[in-house]
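Dear Dr. H.,

I hope your travels went smoothly. While you were away I took the liberty of generating a structure for the chain from your last submission, since the lab meeting agenda had it listed for discussion. I wanted you to have the full record in hand beforehand rather than looking at slides cold. The sequence, exactly as received, is reproduced here:
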Amino acid sequence: MLDYNLENRGEASLYEYVYQQIRDDIVAGRIAAGEHLPSKRAFASHLGISVITIENAYSQLLAEGYICSKPRRGYYACELPDAPVLSLAAGDIDRDAVSVGPSAHDSDGQTEQFEALSPSALEAARLWQSTLRATLTSEDEREIFSPAPAQGTARLRRAIAHHLRGTRGMNVDPNNIVIGAGAQLLDTMLVQLLGADKVYAVEDPGYLRLTRIYQAMGCEVRHIPLDGEGVDLSALQKTGADVLHLMPSHQYPTGLVTSIARRYALLSWAAEQPDRYLIEDDFDCEFRLAGKPIPALASIDAAQSVIYTNTFSKSLSSALRLAYMVLPDELMERFRRNLGFYASSVSSVDQVALARLLESGDYERHVNRVRVRAREARDGLTALVRKAFPAGEFLVEHADAGLYCVVVAECDTGGNSFTRALARSSIPYIDINDCFWCPDGAHGSSNPTRILVQYDDLSPNELNTLESQLMGAPSNLSE
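The corresponding predicted structure, in token form, is as follows:
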């Protein structure tokens, strides 16, 4: 029986401490691959804590891929490949950051029609307005009106480093952070930094605009299919790729979380050859609505082969164009040498305002409020699906992973009916088949239809409308 001294947990909650201890024992080999873990009831009785505490710890380990569940047999430790990794931070992680607001759309030269802001986007806009006013009236004029260095102001980089330490368990040198006007600009800068002659690999299905960005920069792009644990490693190895751009903590659009075993394997792949890198796109890392956030791939990278990228455009507004990347030491030196001539693409005013927002705690309070609303909307949506389809014609996947879930229909006719109901209810959705670059990877007619449904600002009225669409005309579901 595993035995842990709960008096040593410090400020960590009981379930977090148990999770951390089991995780560390699996990583260190003290719990061998394939070893059977104690039953939840027996383990809880042994430690003198509740069964729900053990259940939460096991759920987090299961989500990250440290353990697996076998029906009617219990939980077993997973095998972890050898890889140059760092120990994970044991401290508490603040996970209160969420996405809000739609992106602005292009009008092709015509008069632009602006949609009403969602509640979360409106709250973010007002928060930014008040922060800008406070910045302009109370901050040193020399700081807010002086040109920012190429990699961004030191104050904002320090604030981001502190933010990453608390939310992602990453010990980041502020001097290795580069601020940019949106993730797309940083992606183009990375091509300039790494070289357009490299072969870039991306996930399929994935973010199609990313492929177009790399192609526009003259790069060869390879599309890597996914399996149940993340990027298909065998397919990746056959492509001759030098750089892999991936979303390990919450893949778009599938919602898949890359298992810890696959993360180790990807780190080993990157370390096999010099100048081979993983670009970790952590675009909605803090959106996880249950359990602890999934640790960043960069937080366990000992070989400095991970380039970490993230954005505040999700948690505030895409209109602000605020993103950043964390470069390994060697690439940071290359950036200063080859790209240090660039002027900063984000104004000093905006950088000081964002730093002020992070320093004051107002940012965390804002995103926590949005997370609460998102969780309520998520719960309403999943409950409605279960109510409308008690026979299990539709399943909800990855509902805890972020601000969208995947609704799986067992047949295309059911999927078509569900999308019609979503459209009539004005609820955003995406058919995941539309996110494949390689047509051969898309699901055929004999496979389930998978629909991405956003619920970051799903209102009770929209849910009521969807319920009336689904429950009021059941005959339509078989059309």
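Two observations you may find useful: The chain is about 40% helix and 15% strand. Residues 27 and 80 are 7 Å apart (CA to CA).

With kind regards,
E. W.
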